[in-house]
Structures are given as structure tokens and as C-alpha cells.
Amino acid sequence: MNAAQLALDNIERFGEYASTWFEDRSYTNVELYHHACRFAETLRQHGVKSGDGVVVMMLNSPAVNAAFIAIWKLGAVIIPVTPMWNAREVRYVLEDSGASFAITSPELSARLKEAAAELPNFREVLCIGESADATNIEAEIEASTEFTPLVECEASDLAMLLYTSGTTGNPKGVMLSHDNMIFVADALYERNASVGQIRSLSVLPMSHVYGVLMMNLGYRMGNSTYILKHFDAGKVLSLIESFKAQRLAFVPTMLTMLINHPDREKYDCSSLQTVGTGGAPLAESTRLEFERLFNCKVKQGYGLSETAGALTTYYADEAYRVGSVGRAMNGFDICAMDFSNQILPAGETGELCTRGRHVMLGYLNKPEATRDTIIDGPNGIWLHTGDIGHVDAEGYVFITDRKKELVIKGGENISPREIEEGLYGHPAIAEAAVFGIPEEIFGENLAAAVVLRAGHSLTEEELKTFIGGYVTKFKVPAKIVFMEALPKGPSGKILKRAIRDEIVST
User: Fold this and answer.
1) Is residue 200, in this structure, part of any structural domain at all?
2) What confidence tens digit (pLDDT) does each residue in 213-253 have?
3) How many structural domains is the chain composed of?
4) Domain limits at 250?
């Protein structure tokens, strides 16, 4: 078993076709696979072998996809790193993972060189292009004629080490196996098989599990995909029109940015059929507005890095249930448990837990965190997601909140998401984030950060009055701040901790 087989199976199943576009050039699946094979041979010549950790720190491009297949082909381990990270953050990953090599691009090579300085186990920074700080392997790849055989791996062998962007402390390295990657891609393909080959846009960063999952799903479905280096709302709108994109995979903040783009109405987006979204809660008002403006279906799914990116979703032709992220895919068990690790009846709220072949191997070098997350429970080993919700009698999953984001005010648990839904109901609000801040009397109180739509004005008191009509006075945020933009991580998630820390410090 080797996850690189996904790319080879794509050729065997669909033959040669134009599978990828990047910067207005098209590539066939055969062309890209042969490039990945030459890439693998080049890495082998530089000493990369089975089991080695290889950091990939690049903006989205076909070269990233080829690097992933090349690394897997050798039986080595992919360690994706967001290009946004500074040298200190990258160095932590290099040290913690014990990575031997890194692959990057010229504009990022200096940062990697700095991060890897004097690390005893690190060997070489490899660059796709000319750089004074790394070894340029671009010409070597093009000149290579040898095709390294695909290394057979055990199902449980490590395929990817994915560092989660935790809100506190250093990130944790999520260990995903070859079986994890293939099993989840196959399960998601089954939910989408009725769609067939489609034209899609790839904007999710390949340093994020969601982006990797979409790459693997594309192999299974035989998609034609236009790759963008990063998300740009104007560029996306333009490509929906020119590329006639049928499907998007976005995080909710990207939907909001498309809705609010000043030139949205100038583009013909009639080709768009479906938008899959995950990675963060989707406000119902955002879903409805996007469907109205773009005349397409928006369906929310749910997954974690610890489940190789997916856990629940909808079938392609399945009716959407308001508030639900769909049902667990085949082979995925999911339930709500109480704090005694007992499975709760349908409809009762607890911590969402899951078991199956999609569950990670554990956290690298963090046995305690692994034991706290993967726990022996009823009828087997369960991954505790840290998310609060319930599963109804038909298997539909509803997420209330993250356990660690619950605000406890005066002994009462309050869900920030509930207030966020109310804020999104105001016509002037483009983005909103609600979180807890320290408070002397109640221990914790609520605060909110909002971004206004262009051309709108609003005061803090006006917004408090509005939200007071949606939730009880007890839940009205004590403080509301207005921002030009909410800080986001590389996957598009709003960084609530960063906002909170800024508010608390002022």
C-alpha cells in the first residue's frame, strides 16, 4: 500500500486527459505523473529514502502535488508547512519531526535556511528554482530519465506528519498513515461518485489537510482542476466564469469574501453547481445568501487533521439539513459521549467521538496528548474530537461548539457560535467572531470582534441592542470591537485567540 498509487490509479482509470491548469497553462495527468517520477528519482539521488521526513514549504502549484507524489513514491514522509510561518515556527517543526530534507521555492528558501541552521539531523534544503540559500533541483528533475519504482509500504506506515495550528503552545504533529489517506479519499469519493468528472478550483493551501484531501479526491474522481497559489476573491470569480468551474471546496470565510466582493455581479458564475465547505462553522445566513446569489448548493462537511480531513458529509444529491454537517461516511463510526466516556442516546449532546480506519496514528512525541485524545471506550478505541454536538436518530451530526471554546460565565456554559449566528443576521455584518475574556465577577465574559460590510456604519451599542433581540441579556457580549479584517490562519480559520489576546492587552 502506498498513497502515491492514487495518482497512478487515476491514469489507469481515466486515461490521459487535461487534469490541471496553473497560470493559464494546462497539464495532463500523465505529464504530471511522469514529472513526479523524475522528481522522485532526483530526491533519491540527493539521499531521500524510505522513512525520511521531508518538509514541503511552498505556495500552491503543480510542483507541490508532484513533490507529494514523489515523496510518497519513495516511502518517505510528507511534512507540509505553511509558507506563512516564520523561521522560529519552521525550526520547531524541523526539530520536532527530525526532518532530513526540505523542498521549497526561491522566495522562501532563506527562511528555511535560517530555520535549519546547525540542526544535526537536517541534511539539505532543495529548491524549485534558483536560490543562493538552497540547492536548485529544477534542472535535475527535468533531465532525469530514471523512474524509481514505487516503494511498497505497510498500511500503518507513516505517510504524512501534519502540524496543527494550535491556539496555545507549540503545534502538534498529527501522524497519518497511508491507509488513513487512501481510506478517507475512497470514502469521500463514494459520497461524490454520482457527480463524475468535474471542473474545480483548488485554492485551499496544501499545507492544510483539507487541501491534501481535495487533491486525493481529484485523483479518484478524475477532476480537471485549476490551481491557484492562494485565495483571491476577484481571481476566483474570474475563473468561475472563464474556466466554467462547477465545484468549489472552501472554508466559510471564503464564501463571505465572494459574497461581499464589489465586482461580484460582473461575472457569469452560472456554471457553479456545488460548494463544499468545512474547517469552521458555517453561518446559516451565509449559506442561504451564497445559494441565492450564486444559484448553487452549499453543503457543509466536518473533519479534522486527526481524521485525515473528513468525517461527515452529504451525498451529492442529498437534501441539506439546516445546522447539520451531514452523516458519517461509510466505515466511519461517530457518536456523542458523556464525560464518563459512555455513548449517549440519539439527540443528546456530548463530545463527538469517532472510530475507524480514518483515525490518526497519534501525535508525534506527545504520548500524553495521544492518550488524552485516543481513548479506550465502549466497543473499541475512540478518537475524542473536542467538539460538542449530537447525532440524531438518522445519523445526522450537529456541532454545537468546541469544548475548549465554551465560555463559562457565572457557572453557565455559553456557546460562542450561538451569538455568532445572531451577529451574522445583521445586514451590516460581514464577519464575526465571539470568544471569552477574563472578567472579575463572573470569571469569564463574552466579547465579539466584527467586520462591517462596505458602506455600512454601526455603533457598539446599536449592535448590542440588536443581538439582545436574538439571545438573552446574559449572553450579550460585554465588549464589541470593530476591525478592518479578522486575522486568519493559512486554512482561512479565524484566529480567535489572537483577537482575544489583543483585546485583553489593551
Assistant:
1) no
2) 999 999 999 999 999 999 999 999 999 999 999 999 998 88
3) 3
4) 231-401
